[in-house]
Structures are given as structure tokens and as C-alpha cells.
Amino acid sequence: MHKRVVITGMGVAAPNGVGLSAFSTAIKNGLSGIRFDPQLAELAFSCQIAGKPEIDDTLAAQYLTALELRGFNSTGILYGLIAGMDAWQDAGLPILQNEEPDWDSGTIFGAGTSGIEKFREAILKIDDKQVRRLGSTAVLQTMASGISAYLGGKLGLGNQVSTNSSACTTGAESILMAYERIKSGQAKRMLAGSASDSGPYIWAGFDAMKVCTFKHNEDPQSGSRPMSASASGFVPGSGAGALLLEDLETALNRGARIYGEILGGHINSGGQRGSGSMTAPNSIAVQRCIRSAISNAGIQSADIDLINGHLTATSKDALEIQNWSEALQRSGKDFPHINSLKSMTGHCLSAAGSIECVASVLQLQEDFIFPNINCEDLHPDISKWVDPECIPQQCISKKLNIIAKASFGFGDVNACLIFKKYNHG
Amino acid sequence: MDKPELTSRLKAIITTYAQETDALAHLTEETDFIKDLKINSANLVDIVLDVEEEFGIEIDNDSMSRMLTVGAAIEIIEAKLAANDRE
Of A64, A65, A70, A132, which to mutate for an interface test with B (greatest number of B Cβ within 10 Å)? Predict the structure, then answer.
């Protein structure tokens, strides 16, 4: 018998809000977290604007001890700890210093890279023949699984503790993998999420590929323009999002607050065949992923009230809309509402999927649709498929029952999740 | 540098890593970094780096592997400082 899986806690460290309540306020008000980044300007980046969560030393000290903060230089791990530990506590779960680990709880917490600044620091020392001066935490901060390892220790997790990585699909994938583990009865509780480092060393490669906008260095908050005719590339972002998933019975038994239910989802790849490549999506695979998620969740495409898209603000946005429309067989006024968080946060890369899932579940629970900012000039190739009314530019109140969330990534990988309001039965 | 001064400077370094405050308060030459102070063994290399910086010395791999108690640390630091003076 498959277990039903519900969301009982959430945490987030996003460019436009750190902590669930700040983030919730920000997305309702269309608040942009994109700022001019002097370091990127100094280093002669084309794109000199970015999204970084704002975290001061006092806040960091709530998640890491003074000893752990010595020589600490991994923004991704810090963001992941904030989101992950917040989600745990938001679910009303205690952090115990027991001798025995919590065998029923684990984490799948994704990352694209880990501690890239720490890695740079280490490389400079190594090349200077100072290997012996690296200190004891170079490995812990730069291993891909750094974030899940830190979280596992903080929370005493005794079930699976792992990090997944699938480019910009990472966050959605982590949630789906954690969901599967609970559904199959192998864990009662999984902390699912993902994190992405900040800074020039993670963003440089994208700048070099010319996929980031270079037209908005003077007006950062207008820079991230998903679905806009004047979209000119994504704005790099960073942060972390986390969902505490729990099997329904366990959640009910402890009287936990339930944000919503995960009905199912799907992950696939276009195999870099057909229209797919390392960097371009195979549309057949994208549509197949969406349709398989719907079928896996046991719903009809007509049941979807809102789509939270991938929609990065590149030339691929119109293609994504076309793929949704063809996959759902819905268009014009019949198309569901759709929004993109990236207009406010930039593209948070490996953290994008999880931060956007937090935003999705907040909308589901509180019955609102956050605004798409910066798409006052909707792209004509989008309005061809979808009525502009479906793409709200102001926050609207709407009863929501089912939200579809998708993320797509380099390597031609796709993930789609189906969230449903939990109606206490 | 006399021994009390050396010991107090060493203690300041160890304080960062020690988990056992009681043993730290009653530090003796026999105090074992891992057994008594419950210092995470991975942090021993950090203590060595801090000691090198504090005393302006370099601790070789052999000495490092012997540096497990307060007494051993003092002995090694004294020997390195004396070697520095001879240079």
C-alpha cells in the first residue's frame, strides 16, 4: 500500500526574502530581490546584477556554531542550512541531542556545486604549495554532498542522507525523490530541497555563454523579464528552499499542520536527441514529462488551476508555453494561470526548483497567485498560445486546488510535480 | 617565553575547539585533547595551524602526530621556539 505524502514544513533563503514570512510577503507584493553586484562589475562581467539572499552574521550564527563558522566560506551550505533547519522547525519538529539518530527521517538536498568560494581558496593555497594550511573543513565544504551532510548532523537524521544534482532541475528532483522514498514506505519523513552558491565563480560560466542579460546593469529590478518581449537573458540568482515531506498518517498522528499534498510527478530526459541538446530542450520529452506527471498524479489536465513554470527570461520562454499548451491540450482563455518566480529572484540555478516549490505551496495554501513582474510587454509568441489574462501582473486571490510545477535543466532533463490542497480527508 | 605564558596562549587556542568546559577549566599537562577535552579529531590539524600562527613556528608531520596532549604540545612548541632562537 502506497503512503500518501504531505508537506508539513517549509523554509527558504531567497534573494527577495529570507525566512518563510518575509518571502511570502515579498512574492505577494511582487518584490524584486535583484540588485547591482559591485563584485561582478569589478570583475568585468557582462551581467552585473544578481540575486543573493541577504544574511548577516547574527543570522548565520543561529545556524552554525562559532567553531563551524571558522574558515567557513560556502554560501550554498549556509543557505541550505537556513532553509532546511527552518523547514524542520516550521513542521514543529524538535532538534534533539539524542544519542540515537532518528532512523525514520532523512534528507535529499540537492546542489549544483558546493562551496565554490572555499574551493577557490583551497586551490590558491594548493598552487602556492600550502596544502598543509587548508584546515580541516575544505573537504566538508566542497564535497557535492556537503549540504546534506551538514543537515544530517544538525538534525540527527538516521535515514537516507544524500545530495542529488541535475542542473536547474535539481530542486524539483530532490522533492520527487524524497516523495518516492516516503511513498514506498522506506522513510516517514524526508527533508527535501536544494541550494545554490552565490558569487562570480558560480555565475561566470553562464556569463561567458551569453545566456545572462547585460542590458539592465543600470536598472537591476527590471532585469529579470520572463515571458516579456524584451527579455534578454536570465539574471543569475542563488539561495535555497526546503520542504519537509511526511507520510500522511505520521503527520496526522502528531497533529501536524498540513500545507498540501504531493499527488505525484515525473522526471525524464530528452536524451539530447531530436530538438534536444546539452543546452536546449527536446520538446517531445518536455511534453511527455508533463503528461506523465498528470497521469502519475491521477488527475486530468483540466484539473490544473495554476502552473508555476520554469520560465527563465531567455528566448526559450515561448517554447515552454507552447509545450505546456500542447501537453495540456489547453490554450487561450482555457489555459490555467501561469507565473514565474524568476521575475523576482532571478534564476537560482540548482536552488530554483525548491525555492519555486515553496512559492507554489504558499499559493496553494493561502489561495493567491503571485504577480509576474516585468512582463508588461508580453511576448507575442506567448499571447498566441495563452490569453494574457492567464498571466497576472498583479497579485490575485483565487481558490486553488491543484498546482503543476516544472523545472528543466542543462543535460536536457525535466521534472514536473503536482501539488494539491489538503482537504482533511 | 616562560611556560605559564606559553600555556595560557595555548589554552586560548584550545578553548575554541574544546567541547568539555570542565576539563578546560582544570587544564593540566596530562589533559588529552580528544579524550578529556572531547575535541573532534579532525580539528587537531586546525589547532596545529593556529599554534603555528600564534608562535611563529612550523610543526612537521611527525611532531603533529604526537601533539595529542597539552604536555606534548608545550614540549613541541618549546623545542620549535628554541630551534628558531638558534637560527
Answer: A132
Query: Chunked in runs of 10, what are the mean pLDDT values of chain A (425 residues)?
Result: 95 98 98 98 98 98 95 97 98 94 98 97 97 94 98 98 98 98 98 98 97 97 98 98 98 98 98 96 98 98 98 95 98 98 98 98 98 97 97 98 98 98 82
Distance of CA A202 to the CA centre of its chain: 16
Min CA distance, B69 vs chain A (Å)? Answer: 19
Handedness of CA B3, B6, B12, B14 (dihedral sign): negative
Q: How far is CA A94 from the centre of its chain?
A: 25
Answer whether B43 sits within 8 Å of A67, measured CB to CB: yes
Which residue on chain B is closest to A68 by alpha carbon? B17
**May I ask the CATH architecture of the domain A5-253?**
3-Layer(aba) Sandwich (3.40)
Three-state secondary-structure class, residue B39: coil
CATH of domain A264-420: 3.40.47.10
Q: Domain residue spans in chain B?
A: 3-86
**Minimum Cα–Cα distance from B17: chain A residue:** A67
Contact of A225 with A343, CB cutoff 8 Å: yes
Interface test with A, best of B15, B24, B37, B43 (most A CBs within 10 A): B43
Picking from A7, A12, A4, A3, the residue whose alpha carbon sits closest to that of residue A244 is: A7
Domain boundaries, chain A: 5-253, 264-420
B59, closest residue in chain A (CA to CA): A132
Cα of A133 to nearest chain B Cα, Å: 7
pTM as predicted: 0.96
Architecture of domain B3-86: Orthogonal Bundle (1.10)
**ipTM entry:** 0.86
Are B45 and A67 in contact (CB < 8 Å)?
no
Quote the CA–CA distance of A84 and A220 in Å, as a whole number: 29
- Look at A135 and B17 and tell me if their CB atoms are within 8 Å: no
